[in-house]
Every structure is written in structure tokens, then in C-alpha cells.
Amino acid sequence: MRPMFRLLGPAVVTIEDLDVLVQPLMVAGLLAVLLLAADQYLQLDAIARMLWDEPPASANANLRKYATQLRRLLHVGSAPDLIVSHRDIGYRAATAPETVDVHLFHRLAERGATLLRADNFAEAARDLRGALDLWHGSAGNSLPRGGRLAQQMAALNEQREVAAGDLVEARLALGESGALLAEVRARATDQPLNERNWDQLIRVLYRTGNTGEALAAFARARQTLRDQLGIDPSARLEKLQHAVLTRDDGFIACPAH
């Protein structure tokens, strides 16, 4: 049985049905860097830049030590090493992309977004749910905070929010407004600077017969954006307020991108 690797939350490897938290921090970081490279060799200098803002003089020696620790952690019976080294090239993780949750997430989220744009809402919701079900925490929460790896993990967390917003759109199109109300309220509260969250909350409130609350949500969005960013709502959000006032169901049905 092939090990499965999870980076969408704490770094965990599942070996023969046993979940193993990858530690210490830099060992987990090395594993993440190699897994994100999708079976490609990475030179030591490139790995160092992924893990440190300013690699120390001992970076290459440290990386060799981390690779030894990682091989020991991942070694299963007589199976070949999953961490492969080449004297002139560097290291690679000898595992298929389908064993790594990040690559699975990207595939499902991208396919879900494509299906959403094609108005195939049921299949879009299926793939987007599958993508989001892979998460078990924030990406990078057990990885080093420096280097380019931290930037990649931050980008992954942003992509998760995009996929979650896409799933809301698919479910809205499937007529699930009532079931979405608590979720979209929470999203607007947790991330009040994301206009898409306010857009979806306003539309869900309107569709559930809460026109007054929808207008109040627009007022909160406008005040939040002015207070925290010094900007007015986008033209899209302004038009949405007008659509609520005029009961323009056609515009309100339009998705927020």
C-alpha cells in the first residue's frame, strides 16, 4: 500500500493505515517542498530558499540531515526509499501526485470551477466538496514560517477560500439558499474584507425573504470596507444593493466571481 501525504493541515503521512505526524518542523518542511515539486528533483540551494528567508551557511548539511531523518520516518519494510537523492541534482520525493492531498485538491477545485462556469452545478458541487473535504486545518500550520514555502502555503489557504466560495455558488444555483444561511453569515463575519462573502450573504438573505437584513448586510459591508481599507464597495456590490431595492431577481441570480 502506497503512503498518502497530507499537507492541507498538519503534515501527516499515512503508512499502512497509520497516521504519522511528520516532525520536527524542518523535516516536515523538507517533505512539503519535495511533495509540492511533484516527483521532480530539486537542488539543495532551491530547497534552502524554500525553507529559509536567508539560508544559513550550514543549510546544505542541515538538509542532508533532515533527509536522513525523513527516510527513516518513511521507511516501510523492504519498500524502496521515497526520498531519492542524486549527487549532482538534489532530492526528489518518489511518489505519484495522486498520493498528495495538495495535488488532489488542485485537480478537484479546478475541475469544479470549470463545471461551475459551464452551469453544471450538481457535478461542480460534488468536485468542490471533494476538494474541501481534503482539508483538516490550515495549510502550513506545522511547517516552517520562513522562505517561499510559507508563501505557497498562504496561497493554498487563499485557494481554499475561492473553492469554498465556488461551492456556495453551486449550491445557490441548486436552490439551497436556506441551508447556506448560517455558513455564509460565518464567512462574512470571519473574512469581512472579502467582498464575495458579503455578496453571497446579501443574495442568500434576499432569497430567504430577509430583504431588510440583506440591505443591512450591504451597509455593514460598506462601513467595514471604508473603515478598514478606505475604499467604497465595488460597482458589483453597489448594483446588488440596487437589485435588492428594486427586486431585480435576474441580477441577484448572477454569481459573484
Could you explain how this protein is built, in words?
- There is one protein chain.
- This protein has 257 residues and is mainly alpha-helical.
- The protein contains 11 helices and 5 strands.
- The strands form 2 sheets. The protein has a 3-stranded antiparallel beta sheet, with no helix packed on it. A two-stranded antiparallel ribbon has the order 4-5.
- Strand 2 (12-15) and strand 3 (18-21) form a beta hairpin.
- Helix 1 packs across helix 3 and helix 6 (147-173) packs parallel to helix 8 (195-207).
- It is elongated.
- The two termini are 41 Å apart.
- The relative contact order is 0.10.
- The model has no long low-confidence stretch (mean pLDDT 93).
Query: Count the helices. How many?
Result: 11
Report strand %: 5-15%
Measure the end-to-end span: 41 Å
| Number of strand elements | 5
The rough form would be described as elongated
Secondary-structure class: mainly alpha
Question: Which whole number gives the mean pLDDT?
Answer: 93
Radius of gyration: 22 Å
Low-confidence stretches: none
Report helical residue fraction: 55-70%
Give a quick account of the main beta sheet: strands, pairing sense, barrel closure: 3 strands, antiparallel
- The helix/strand order is EEEHHHEEHHHHHHHH
Strand order of the largest sheet: 1-2-3
